[in-house]
Design brief:
Blueprint: E1 3-4, E2 13-17, H1 20-26, E3 33-34, H2 35-41, E4 56-60, H3 62-68, H4 71-93, E5 98-102, E6 110-112, E7 119-122, E8 130-132, H5 133-138, E9 146-149, E10 156-161
Parallel strand pairs: 1-9, 2-5, 3-4, 4-5
Antiparallel strand pairs: 2-10, 6-7, 7-8, 9-10
Length: 165
């Protein structure tokens, strides 16, 4: 998987971030939206986003929701609810804003296959299954997600995708 040292993820595209330092670079804790707020805003997006000089929206709660749903329901919900919400966000801001999903602990739960760059999410109990994020959210365009690095030689802080189609 390609690595990204640039800060473009803070201003454009969609990211899944698990590193607290990375999250703190774009927002304060009080600016984070709940997943419910995010889904309610679809089709009625605010003119000014709450973070990073109105360039960024950080959303928490995706991880917990995925953990609570059974495997078929989680995949359907991601494809039928979350992906259209991401697309609506992208369309509203014309690619000139960043959507960041805050996933504490995501570093142990997002798995990228080194050979294929396929990306999956490992759900916790009670279901303990894997969800193929790449297939559901970005149609297996596996060459496009990039690992976010905060510094050269550092650990991945998240994943970035410039535009989901």
């Amino acid at each position: 998987m390609r690595q990204l040292l640039d800060t473009v993820w803070q201003r454009r595209g969609t990211s899944w971030v698990w590193d607290e330092e990375a999250r703190n670079q774009v927002c304060s804790a009080s600016e984070v939206w709940s997943l419910r707020q995010f889904l309610r805003a679809v089709g009625d997006w605010p003119e000014d986003l709450p973070s990073n000089g109105s360039n960024t929206l950080v959303v928490a709660g995706l991880d917990g929701s995925l953990d609570l749903l059974g495997p078929p329901d989680a995949e359907s919900w991601l494809g039928d609810t979350i992906k259209p919400a991401i697309l609506s966000f992208q369309d509203e801001y014309g690619g000139d804003a960043a959507l960041v999903f805050w996933l504490p602990g995501g570093n142990t739960r997002i798995k990228a296959q080194a050979v294929t760059d396929e990306v999956s999410w490992l759900c916790h109990t009670p279901h303990r299954h894997q969800i193929d994020l790449g297939r559901i959210l970005w149609g297996q365009a596996n060459e496009y997600p990039q690992e976010i690095l905060l510094r050269d030689g550092g650990k991945a802080a998240g994943l970035f995708h410039l535009r989901i189609t």
